[in-house]
Amino acid sequence: MTDSTRKQAFEVYAYSSSKLIQILSDCSMASVDVVHDKPHSDYFYEYFGSSGVNAKTILVEHNYIDRDFLEDYSSYYVRCFFDYNSICTRLHFFDEFFTRDNFTKLLRGCRGKRFVEKLRNAYLGFIVVKPLPETIIGRTCLKTYLPDNDRRHFPITRPYKANIFGVKLEIADTLAFQEQDSVAAACATSALWSTFQGTGRQFQHAIPSPVEITKAAHARFPLDERELPNFGLRKEQMAHAISSVGLQPLHVKINDTISNEYCLQSTIYGYLKGGIPVPLIVMLYDHSAQTKRGLHAVAVTGYSLGKTSPDSYGQSDFLLRASRIDKLYAHDDGVGPFARMEIDTIMVNLIDPDTGSVMIDQSTGYPLQTDYPRLKTSWRNQCGKIGDTYAKPEYLLIPLYHKIRIPYRTAMNVVIGFDEFMKLPIVAQSLKLFDVIEWDIYLTEVNKLKREILESPVLSGDYKKAVLLECMPKYVWRATAEMDGKRVLDLILDATDIEQGPLMVRAIEYDPNIGHVLRVCTKVRSIIAHYELRPVRNVLHWFAEQPVS
Predict the structure, then answer these.
(1) CA angle 24, 336, 321 (to 5 degrees)
(2) 148 CB-near residues (< 8 Å, 6+ apart)
(3) What is the pLDDT of residues 510-547, one digit of tens each?
């Protein structure tokens, strides 16, 4: 692209993968080979191709000033001897054909509202191209894949607006993404930046730029390494960056839990469905070369309920909807937004936490092993092959509003205990539990809960009125029991309580018969005596205190 071409305000091209690579090269300092070899090119090839959203037109908006890159530029690049440019380029994508002449006529007032509406309906989103030698993918907002038979879920998306020379466009449901530049931001910074795009709206805090996140992370750890350029953040630094926006980090280990895959699926699901993006730290390793590539951070932004039936928890028959998850979707700065991470399981040796040695089964003499989840990524291995680089989940670092005190694990333990109670022979026979119970546990706000109750065709009359009028905390854990695909019961737990508090807010009984049996059975002291010292006792006491009609 010549200098004279660069000075034009915009260009319009028919979409093709090769044309996109050429444009990314022309609008940055990266060569075509560098762009072609980036994993992001593989992602865009699939996303914009026939298997994705089927892009047909690219509008190139030159001379675009991006706030986040300007912050990075003023903090670092402006002080470089080499004269880096501060002006970016923004690429807009549409699934309809139009030409530069068509758009020029619009700007001249020769095209009417119909053409503007066509652009709005066809808009797929944008990519900001940074004027750098390698890490060129800036703020990116792309339309998510459409739901596939209620399989794909992206609970934390929000609308983003774009204005092209007065033409107002919008991506209704997405979450901003960008690539780390290894100077102002490492992978952890990019993951946090995408996370804050979601929590900023959910919890009403300012969204810092990548360089501001990096500075906040280093504020209390100045001796670890240089602030800029930045090559990575430790767990403690990420936690401090979360605290800097007024949230509190919840650290959840994955490799130290009894059931790793269950913990990964259920915890991510419980918070994601509550509208909270989940930063996940993994160990990348090349399967073919049997080598570790190091720790890596992503922001989990969606999931796929691809399994036809739920898995049981450990040796119990407790069934959880989250166990249907077969894929996670993450903002992976090394791949792209909503990048697919398929859950796979391998067997690993159990390590004694005190000695650090492999634990041995005394009866057999063989090492004790457990299922360990791994995630198939879209990273290339050392030979350039996709599909051979895996991510072993290490821990989650969940940013929470300070009033959300009860963690997912506590809520799940309460529900597991209550599920055991419902399956006691005398209770199960009374309930006529011929079908399995599947539980759906997730964080939600009371306003969302009551809106669903108000719209529910199942509840009615004074009972519905009583539920809607009851005073409840702002954040609650909602545990829904379903049988044969029908909702029969909700347990509402106080997410703002303390661990030794009552927790139980109320139950919502969609099946009056089940509600009646539970109210009767919980009044029999001999039945609930076994549960007196368990977390479920307050749930049982709530039912026991309700009148029996």
Answers:
(1) 160
(2) none
(3) 998 899 999 998 888 877 776 665 678 889 999 999 99
What is d(CA 28, CA 134) in angstroms, rounded to the nearest whole number?
8
Q: Where are the beta strands (DSSP E) in 245-335?
A: 248-253, 278-286, 291-304, 319-320, 327-332
Instruction: Supply the DSSP symbol for 418.
Output: H
pTM of this prediction? 0.89
Q: Which DSSP letter does residue 526 get?
A: H
Q: What is the mean pLDDT of the chain?
A: 87
Phi-psi region of 281 (alpha: psi -120 to 50; beta: other; left: phi over 0): beta
| Helix, strand, or coil (residue 516) | helix
Query: Which residues fall within 8 angstroms of residue 257, CB to CB, at 6 or more apart?
Result: 263
Antiparallel, parallel or unpaired: β 248-253 and 336-349 = unpaired
Lowest-pLDDT choice from 59-73, 120-134, 242-256, 286-300: 286-300
Instruction: Tell me the three state secondary structure of residue 171.
Output: strand
DSSP 322: G
Q: Give the torsion sign (CA, 271, 272, 274, 275).
A: positive
DSSP H helices in 246-310: 260-272
Which are the contacts of 162, defined by CB distance < 8 A and separation ≥ 6? 90, 92, 123, 126, 141, 168, 169, 170, 171
Pairing of strands 369-376, 336-349: antiparallel
CA dist list (Å): 421 to 58, 427, 529: 59, 7, 11
How high is the pLDDT of residue 534? Answer: 65
CA distances from 434 to 215, 309, 312, 425, 437 (A): 58, 17, 17, 12, 9
Pair of tokens at residue 115:
């053409």
Question: Which amino acid, one-letter code, is at 190?
Answer: S
Strands 437-445 and 475-483: antiparallel
Residue spans of beta strands (DSSP E) within 350-447: 369-376, 389-400, 437-445
d(CA 430, CA 523): 14
Phi/psi class of residue 458: alpha, beta or left (left: φ > 0; alpha: ψ in -120 to 50)? alpha
For residue 396, the cross-strand partners are 252, 280
Question: Residue 27 is encoded by which pair of tokens?
Answer: 């609008």
Which pair of tokens denotes residue 463?
């009972």
Query: What pLDDT does 411 receive?
Result: 95
For strands 389-400 and 369-376, give the pairing.
antiparallel
Sheet holding 57-64, edge to edge: 10-14, 57-64, 88-94, 123-129, 137-142
Query: How much is the pLDDT for 4?
Result: 39
CA-CA distance, 197 to 174, in Å (whole number)? 10
- Phi-psi region at 68: left, alpha or beta (left = phi > 0; alpha = psi -120 to 50): alpha
Residue 63 reports pLDDT greater than 60 = yes
Domain regions of the chain by residue span: 3-151+159-174, 249-400, 408-545
> Are 304 and 152 within 8 A, CB to CB?
yes
Taking each helix axis from N to C end, the angle separating 39-48 and 17-26, rounded to the nearest 10 degrees, works out to 140
